[in-house]
Specification:
Keywords: DNA-binding, Membrane, Metal-binding, Nucleus, Transcription, Transcription regulation, Transmembrane, Transmembrane helix, Zinc, Zinc-finger. Helices cover about 50% and strands about 0% of the residues. With about 850 residues, it is mainly α. It has a domain of about 180 residues. It is globular. The two termini are about 60 Å apart.
């Protein structure tokens, strides 16, 4: 028994100061505070605080050998005394002294159509049962002072500090932040026996236990079993994800890898298996363009774009580009390619179409059109521009020509840098490389994507070894204005070259960020090395002449004398971005910042993957890092994107980063079928823990906001990373709805609701904190539907693509995403046709 007044007690509880003469008694007592149940039934996953209680419980399963754990866990059936004991009875069953079930609402309340009221704060924890608290701790014969342990009634509710709040006083950002870390108690002042310390430190590898236990220097533990000490003292922080028992049943096998067929038939996700005859000559037949096909290009200049160069493409430039193609072609194809090569007028139209499209759609324009002289550029850059113009053309035959030309440019650049090493430092070669890399990454063809991935390091090497990432290589405009013996036009050209390189650096980093989440790639650029100043304001960049450039700088001294801060200065301090608003390109700065922030999120998940699952979800360092990243991202939102009018593109990327911060999309995709069946089963425990955590609610909120932002994109804007973000959002929402079906929640019919693809409200905050509101989405007709309506989730994403593109031909990446979502919807309806949920919207 605990004797708080007995000075001879060797072991003292750090919370309630109860004293015990034996360590195992203190261990049992501490579990009353922590609610630990380390001894888990391998059949029904019920936890117990003592080994003997688990053994006694196991006899209920062994009696008769006819107990069905699956039926018992889901329905709570019992056969007399040997039946399954529920973790917590609802209030109605408790008052009537009737048998309840673990599944809430319980079976009795559902059948009688009455409200099933129970304490939701205790959900997710193994509750103490009557057998756990009815038997006092047994006293060892050798216990000193006749002390017998007892269970303290002062149980600590670990969720207490998360519930009592005024919802209207919080923003969504506070819902993502972890609770503050409490200061630990002072270190114990008495010496610790060396033998005991060595045994605990080396053999058991325990955390510091001074918060709970005060040891006497003469205590010896040779006769005590410490095998379960590693589970005794969890951090005072609530876990990032609630950790279920080790033997917790995984989701039903039929729900794992449901979408495997959709992944297998996708040209993006399917694994490319090269054949012996495959080479860069594979696409050369597409370079033969039929004479009766003429590319349809839109040469109308949209508002806000810069006119294309006045100098048309010369015949000499056309011949140089054709010679580049023929050098990489086989002899059998060379004559056909030369005979059908597009005319000078067609090539000129394709280049103009490419430049106009890049200004509208490309994230971070890095080619300065007013100073672009096509006849002085290398054929690799001209060829990449022609390829770009072909690929964004609506004609399928012209698109094939563009992808074949992109492959040719890739091979030609590799040959060029091998033959002329000095070209590694040329701006035009680097621009051509990243333009064709962009086309390859977003081609929607697994072969081209893999080849682009294999060659991407060449571009990084060009920039890194050319010292393009160093801050001392860049100067403010006033330095160029002060150059002697140069005309204003020459000074302008020098500044444009520097600014073009800056923009290319951040375009390259953004491209890696955009591709990495879908392809599972690591960041090629590190945040610490990004010393390149962020892009300068478009007010200076878009000047059409040297005189206009000079006038702009002389009228605004800030633009002339200051450069935007580099990414490595602002990444952890987004409040500094406010200083960039006057001198920086706001939208490009947002893209670059989110690209750098994604690398921090990726590092977080890499650290998480190095630890065992049960340790990773409760690791103090990882939880602290997650809290820090959540705070930084919210600071960026409040200090930057909330201060200016942001585009839908920025909003999509911001929520996409937030989505990846709160969920491992690799695990979600493997669970859905991207990979083998074994990989799907291995991901099930993570998915299960994630669904039960606050992180899942934060993730589906960001996913809903992605759906909302994609509706705001201009026609034809749902491409590349934006359509990939739509796929990520739909996948996360689909999995969350699937788990809602498997593990029904406690929502009350006609209870409070929250719409995930709507504006932030007080209900959103309440949902993120407590999860007691039922989440809904809004279809294209404006009607709400719950996430459990799985097919409607993917169909909504598919319909958003349809509305954005109308009757225009879809780009390959967008088309593959559309097909994948359509296949996923079809599979879902086939598998769950008998469980179709009635739409609860009015």
């Amino acid at each position: 028994m605990a004797t708080t007044s007995n000075p001879a007690g060797l072991y003292t509880c750090g919370l309630c100061k109860a004293e015990y003469s034996r360590a195992d008694h203190l261990i049992r007592h501490v579990r009353s505070h922590t609610r630990q149940r380390p001894f888990v039934c391998s059949i029904c996953a019920k936890g117990f605080g003592r080994q003997d209680l688990l053994k006694r419980h196991m006899t209920t399963h062994n009696a008769g050998n006819s107990f069905d754990p699956d039926i018992s866990m889901s329905r709570g059936t019992s056969n007399g005394r040997n039946g399954h004991r529920v973790h917590q009875a609802c209030k109605a069953c408790s008052e009537k002294k009737l048998k309840c079930t673990d599944e809430k609402p319980c079976k009795r309340c559902s059948e009688k159509n009455i409200f099933c009221d129970f304490d939701t704060d205790m959900q997710g924890y193994n509750q103490p049962t009557a057998s756990d608290i009815s038997r006092p701790f047994e006293q060892d014969d050798s216990g000193s002072n006749g002390a017998v342990s007892q269970v303290s009634d002062n149980n600590v509710d670990v969720n207490e500090n998360l519930t009592g709040h005024d919802d209207t006083q919080y923003r969504v950002s506070e819902a993502f932040s972890a609770v503050e870390v409490h200061q630990s108690n002072e270190e114990m002042t008495t010496p610790w026996d060396t033998t005991v310390r060595d045994m605990l430190d080396s053999a058991l590898n325990l955390p510091v236990m001074s918060d709970y236990v005060q040891f006497d220097q003469d205590s010896i533990f040779e006769d005590t079993d410490f095998s379960f000490y590693s589970k005794l003292f969890p951090s005072e922080l609530p876990p990032l994800f609630p950790v279920p028992s080790v033997s917790e049943a995984s989701p039903q096998p039929s729900t794992i890898s449901i979408g495997a067929e959709a992944y297998r038939t996708s040209t993006v996700f399917a694994t490319w298996n090269p054949r012996k005859e495959d080479s860069h000559h594979t696409d050369q037949q597409d370079l033969v363009l039929p004479h009766d096909i003429e590319p349809r290009t839109n040469n109308a200049q949209p508002p806000g774009t810069v006119a294309t160069p006045k100098d048309n493409l010369s015949q000499s430039s056309r011949d140089q580009m054709l010679a580049m193609i023929l050098r990489t072609s086989s002899r059998t194809d060379s004559h056909r390619i030369a005979g059908s090569f597009p005319t000078l007028q067609i090539l000129q139209g394709l280049v103009r179409h490419a430049l106009l499209h890049m200004q509208e759609r490309l994230i971070g324009m890095f080619i300065h059109i007013p100073t672009l002289d096509l006849n002085k550029e290398r054929p690799e850059l001209v060829g990449s521009l022609v390829a770009y113009g072909c690929i964004v053309s609506p004609s399928p035959a012209v698109r094939k020509f563009g992808y074949a030309l992109q492959e040719t440019v890739r091979v030609a650049i590799n040959q060029l840098v091998q033959e002329e090493h000095a070209t590694l430092r040329e701006l035009g070669v680097a621009q051509a490389f990243y333009l064709q890399l962009y086309l390859g990454y977003w081609s929607g063809i697994s072969r081209k994507i893999e080849l682009a991935e294999s060659s991407s390091m060449l571009g990084v090497t060009m920039l890194r070894r050319g010292k393009r990432l160093c801050a001392d290589q860049y100067h403010p405009p006033e330095v160029f204005l002060d150059l002697q013996d140069l005309t204003i036009h020459e000074k302008w050209l020098k500044w444009v070259e520097q600014e073009s390189m800056k923009r290319l650096v951040y375009f390259a980093m953004c491209l890696e960020f955009h591709v990495a989440p879908s392809r599972g790639l690591g960041a090629l650029f590190t945040c610490g090395e990004m010393g390149t100043p962020l892009p300068t304001s478009t007010k200076v960049w878009n000047t059409a002449s040297a005189n206009q450039w000079w006038e702009t700088l002389t009228q605004d001294i800030t633009l002339a004398t200051q450069q935007p801060l580099p990414l490595n200065r602002v990444l952890r301090q987004p409040n500094l971005l406010a200083n960039n608003l006057a001198v920086g390109d706001r939208e490009f700065t947002a893209f670059a910042y989110l690209a750098g922030f994604w690398s921090l999120v990726e590092d977080h998940w890499h650290m998480n993957s190095l630890l065992p699952d049960t340790q990773a979800v409760d690791d103090f360092v990882l939880k602290s890092r997650h809290t820090e990243l959540s705070t930084i991202l919210e600071c960026f939102k409040s200090e930057f994107t909330d201060q200016i009018e942001t585009s839908p593109e920025v909003q999509i990327l911001q929520d996409l980063v937030g989505l990846h911060l709160h969920v491992s999309l690799d695990e979600i995709a493997r669970y859905c079928g991207k990979g083998t069946e074994d990989e799907g089963r291995a991901s099930a425990p993570y998915v299960q823990r994630w669904y039960q955590s606050t992180q899942s609610r934060a993730a589906i909120w960001h996913a809903g906001q992605i759906l909302r932002a994609t509706r705001l994109l201009p026609p034809g804007g749902l491409v590349d990373i934006f359509v990939a973000g739509l796929y990520h959002a739909a996948l996360v929402l689909w999995v969350w709805g699937l788990l809602c079906r498997i593990r029904p929640s406690t929502w009350v019919s006609n209870g409070p609701e929250v719409v995930l693809d709507d504006a932030e409200t007080a209900e959103v905050v309440k949902f993120l904190k407590s999860g007691r509101l039922k989440p809904y989405l809004t279809n294209q007709g404006g009607n709400k539907f719950p996430l459990e309506d799985l097919a409607s989730v993917t169909e909504l994403a598919r319909d958003i693509i349809t509305k954005n593109w109308g009757r225009e031909p879809l780009p390959l990446t967008t088309m593959e995403t559309f097909r994948f979502l359509q296949d996923f919807s079809k599979i879902t309806r086939q598998r769950f046709d008998e469980m179709v949920i009635k739409n609860s919207s009015t």
